Amino acid sequence: MSVSLPGEMFPGSATDLPRTDGVQHPATSLLYRGRPTAARLVRRHFRVEERGRERVPMDGPVIMVANHVGFIDGPLMAILAPRPVHSLTKVEMFSGPMGRFLRASGQIPVRRHEPDIRAVRVSLKVLRAGGVVGVFPEGSRGGGECKRAEPGAAYLAIASGAPVVPVIYLGTRLPGSRLSSIPPRGSRVAMTYGEPLIFPAHGWPRRRGEVREITEQIRNALLDTRRCAEDATGMSLPGPAPDGEVEE
């Protein structure tokens, strides 16, 4: 049974701060039309296991927050999640053919190391239209342990009232492999969805202390979902990247 939450829980309009009137909604055509074919290809390549799909609200805005282990985390979210997802993706990816594909598939460029009001406004545009935004709160690929979390998801939650659904990836990078690596064909990959969190929406101002508190609640929900995922699958995270590699 899927979760459905009443629409009145999601207040907000284009003229609320930050304003989204005049902001262009990300592309939807390729994201929506291409998912069935892409999902078949992914399932042919990997042994995909999904748990907790019924926890994702099927109506209204949703924020999906996930640990970040490997290169395929974002594509898996966009392709296999119960609903199409517009994920915040580092702006460095938006160049050349890859950049054109990401824009055509509705992904949202974000500058990771500074406040990015444009990315916030585009994300709120999606949420206020009843769509789904994906966020990787760790900010970069790594061990996926959720030791830290950036405040973006928490801010979007209280600005929109959208439920926050934790997602844990296991198997999207093999132990000892590089951050840009892709698991070989036939690898087991698990996606686990946790219980949605609800934070009441409210208008301006939104205090830093409140955002920090909600950020920690989101991080703890990811940790809880991770423990459930590891117990259910018998899988574990890959550990740090080799030779101290970090994502640029």
List keywords for this structure.
248 residues, alpha/beta, seven-stranded mixed beta sheet, 6 helices, globular, disordered N terminus
Written description of the protein model:
The chain contains 6 helices and 7 strands. The chain is α/β, with parallel strands linked by helices and 248 residues long. Strands 1-7-6-2-5-3-4 form a 7-stranded mixed β-sheet, with helices on both faces. Helix 1 packs across helix 2, helix 4 packs across helix 5 and helix 5 packs across helix 6. The N terminus is likely disordered.
| Strand-residue proportion | 5-15%
Major sheet: order of its strands?
A: 1-7-6-2-5-3-4
The secondary structure category is alpha/beta
Question: What is the 3D shape?
Answer: globular
Tell me the number of strands: 7
H and E string: HEEHEHEHEHEEH
User: Could you report the average pLDDT, rounded to the nearest whole number?
Assistant: 91
Outline the secondary-structure elements.
Elements: H1 29-45, E1 47-51, E2 62-66, H2 73-80, E3 86-90, H3 96-104, E4 108-110, H4 117-128, E5 132-135, H5 152-160, E6 164-170, E7 188-193, H6 208-233
Parallel strand pairs: 1-7, 2-5, 2-6, 3-4, 3-5
Antiparallel strand pairs: 6-7
Structure summary:
With 248 residues, the protein is of the alpha/beta class. The protein has helices spanning 29-45, 73-80, 96-104, 117-128, 152-160, 208-233; strands at residues 47-51, 62-66, 86-90, 108-110, 132-135, 164-170, 188-193.
